[in-house]
Prior knowledge:
alpha/beta; five-stranded parallel sheet; binds D-ribose
Amino acid sequence: MKIAIGSDHAGFRLKEFLKDFLRESKCEVVDFGTDSEESVDYPDFAFKVCESIVKQDVQFGILICGTGLGMSIAANKVKGIRASLCNDLFAARCAREHNDANVLCMGGRVLGEALAKEIVKIWLNGEFQGGRHERRIQKITEYERKTHSD
Ligand code: RB5
Protein backbone atom coordinates (compact mmCIF):
# COMPACT_ATOMS: atom_id res chain seq x y z
CA MET A 1 0.00 0.00 0.00
CA LYS A 2 1.30 3.46 -0.93
CA ILE A 3 0.44 6.29 1.47
CA ALA A 4 1.13 10.02 1.37
CA ILE A 5 1.75 11.73 4.71
CA GLY A 6 1.96 15.40 5.67
CA SER A 7 1.82 17.64 8.70
CA ASP A 8 2.36 21.15 9.93
CA HIS A 9 4.73 22.00 12.79
CA ALA A 10 2.19 20.87 15.41
CA GLY A 11 1.92 17.45 13.79
CA PHE A 12 5.56 17.03 12.86
CA ARG A 13 6.61 14.74 15.72
CA LEU A 14 3.62 12.45 15.33
CA LYS A 15 4.17 12.34 11.57
CA GLU A 16 7.76 11.17 12.06
CA PHE A 17 6.63 8.51 14.53
CA LEU A 18 3.86 7.23 12.24
CA LYS A 19 6.11 7.29 9.19
CA ASP A 20 8.46 4.84 10.91
CA PHE A 21 5.55 2.67 12.02
CA LEU A 22 4.08 2.58 8.49
CA ARG A 23 7.42 1.67 6.92
CA GLU A 24 7.90 -1.11 9.49
CA SER A 25 4.43 -2.31 8.44
CA LYS A 26 5.67 -2.60 4.83
CA CYS A 27 3.74 0.42 3.54
CA GLU A 28 5.38 2.65 0.98
CA VAL A 29 5.31 6.18 2.43
CA VAL A 30 5.67 9.44 0.50
CA ASP A 31 6.42 12.28 2.92
CA PHE A 32 5.27 15.73 1.77
CA GLY A 33 6.67 17.51 4.85
CA THR A 34 6.90 19.58 6.92
CA ASP A 35 10.44 18.81 7.97
CA SER A 36 10.74 20.50 11.38
CA GLU A 37 8.80 22.16 14.20
CA GLU A 38 9.23 25.59 12.64
CA SER A 39 5.85 27.26 12.12
CA VAL A 40 4.22 26.60 8.72
CA ASP A 41 0.70 26.71 7.24
CA TYR A 42 -1.23 23.43 7.25
CA PRO A 43 -3.15 23.98 3.94
CA ASP A 44 0.13 23.83 1.96
CA PHE A 45 0.69 20.25 3.12
CA ALA A 46 -2.96 19.20 2.94
CA PHE A 47 -3.16 20.17 -0.73
CA LYS A 48 0.09 18.37 -1.68
CA VAL A 49 -1.04 15.13 -0.05
CA CYS A 50 -4.56 15.34 -1.50
CA GLU A 51 -3.33 16.09 -5.00
CA SER A 52 -1.16 12.99 -4.92
CA ILE A 53 -4.29 10.95 -4.15
CA VAL A 54 -6.33 12.60 -6.91
CA LYS A 55 -3.49 11.91 -9.38
CA GLN A 56 -3.53 8.29 -8.15
CA ASP A 57 0.15 8.39 -7.21
CA VAL A 58 -0.87 7.01 -3.81
CA GLN A 59 -3.93 5.24 -2.45
CA PHE A 60 -4.46 7.04 0.86
CA GLY A 61 -3.29 10.10 2.78
CA ILE A 62 -2.56 10.89 6.42
CA LEU A 63 -2.56 14.51 7.59
CA ILE A 64 -1.65 15.78 11.03
CA CYS A 65 -1.91 19.28 12.50
CA GLY A 66 -2.49 20.36 16.10
CA THR A 67 -6.12 19.25 16.27
CA GLY A 68 -6.63 17.63 12.86
CA LEU A 69 -9.34 20.23 12.19
CA GLY A 70 -7.46 22.56 9.87
CA MET A 71 -6.11 19.66 7.83
CA SER A 72 -9.56 18.11 7.43
CA ILE A 73 -11.16 21.42 6.42
CA ALA A 74 -8.46 22.05 3.80
CA ALA A 75 -8.39 18.45 2.50
CA ASN A 76 -12.15 18.36 1.98
CA LYS A 77 -11.88 21.32 -0.43
CA VAL A 78 -10.08 19.06 -2.91
CA LYS A 79 -12.40 17.39 -5.40
CA GLY A 80 -12.45 13.64 -4.87
CA ILE A 81 -11.18 13.79 -1.31
CA ARG A 82 -13.14 12.43 1.62
CA ALA A 83 -11.07 13.41 4.65
CA SER A 84 -12.00 12.07 8.08
CA LEU A 85 -10.92 13.59 11.36
CA CYS A 86 -10.36 10.61 13.65
CA ASN A 87 -9.05 11.15 17.13
CA ASP A 88 -10.65 7.92 18.42
CA LEU A 89 -10.90 4.28 17.36
CA PHE A 90 -14.65 4.22 16.66
CA ALA A 91 -14.40 7.14 14.25
CA ALA A 92 -11.41 5.46 12.57
CA ARG A 93 -13.44 2.30 11.90
CA CYS A 94 -16.55 4.17 10.69
CA ALA A 95 -14.52 6.50 8.46
CA ARG A 96 -13.48 3.57 6.28
CA GLU A 97 -16.54 1.34 6.65
CA HIS A 98 -19.22 4.02 6.19
CA ASN A 99 -17.54 7.03 4.59
CA ASP A 100 -14.94 5.36 2.36
CA ALA A 101 -12.58 8.09 3.52
CA ASN A 102 -9.35 8.36 1.56
CA VAL A 103 -7.63 10.75 3.98
CA LEU A 104 -7.11 10.29 7.72
CA CYS A 105 -6.61 13.48 9.75
CA MET A 106 -5.39 13.47 13.34
CA GLY A 107 -4.42 15.93 16.03
CA GLY A 108 -0.79 15.87 17.08
CA ARG A 109 -1.70 17.93 20.16
CA VAL A 110 -4.63 15.66 20.96
CA LEU A 111 -3.25 12.14 20.58
CA GLY A 112 -0.46 10.16 22.16
CA GLU A 113 1.67 7.95 19.95
CA ALA A 114 0.14 4.64 21.07
CA LEU A 115 -3.45 5.71 20.36
CA ALA A 116 -2.48 7.32 17.05
CA LYS A 117 -0.85 4.07 15.96
CA GLU A 118 -4.01 2.09 16.78
CA ILE A 119 -6.13 4.62 14.87
CA VAL A 120 -3.90 4.22 11.81
CA LYS A 121 -4.04 0.40 12.04
CA ILE A 122 -7.84 0.33 12.27
CA TRP A 123 -8.26 2.97 9.57
CA LEU A 124 -5.96 1.19 7.09
CA ASN A 125 -7.44 -2.24 7.72
CA GLY A 126 -11.07 -1.10 7.48
CA GLU A 127 -13.11 -1.98 4.42
CA PHE A 128 -15.89 0.08 2.87
CA GLN A 129 -19.23 -1.66 3.46
CA GLY A 130 -21.03 -0.25 0.41
CA GLY A 131 -24.82 -0.65 0.34
CA ARG A 132 -26.66 2.34 1.81
CA HIS A 133 -23.30 4.01 2.42
CA GLU A 134 -22.50 3.83 -1.29
CA ARG A 135 -25.68 5.77 -2.09
CA ARG A 136 -24.68 8.53 0.33
CA ILE A 137 -21.16 8.78 -1.06
CA GLN A 138 -22.62 9.00 -4.56
CA LYS A 139 -24.72 11.99 -3.48
CA ILE A 140 -21.59 13.78 -2.30
CA THR A 141 -19.73 12.91 -5.52
CA GLU A 142 -22.65 14.11 -7.63
CA TYR A 143 -22.83 17.39 -5.69
CA GLU A 144 -19.10 17.87 -6.23
CA ARG A 145 -19.48 17.15 -9.95
CA LYS A 146 -22.24 19.78 -10.28
CA THR A 147 -20.61 22.51 -8.22
CA HIS A 148 -16.83 22.24 -8.85
CA SER A 149 -15.33 23.40 -12.10
CA ASP A 150 -12.39 21.28 -13.36
C1 RB5 B 1 -1.21 25.55 14.69
O1 RB5 B 1 -0.98 26.33 15.81
C2 RB5 B 1 -2.63 24.99 14.72
O2 RB5 B 1 -3.56 26.00 14.57
C3 RB5 B 1 -2.79 23.95 13.64
O3 RB5 B 1 -1.84 22.95 13.84
C4 RB5 B 1 -4.11 23.21 13.58
O4 RB5 B 1 -4.48 22.70 14.83
C5 RB5 B 1 -5.21 23.90 12.91
O5 RB5 B 1 -6.32 23.39 12.78
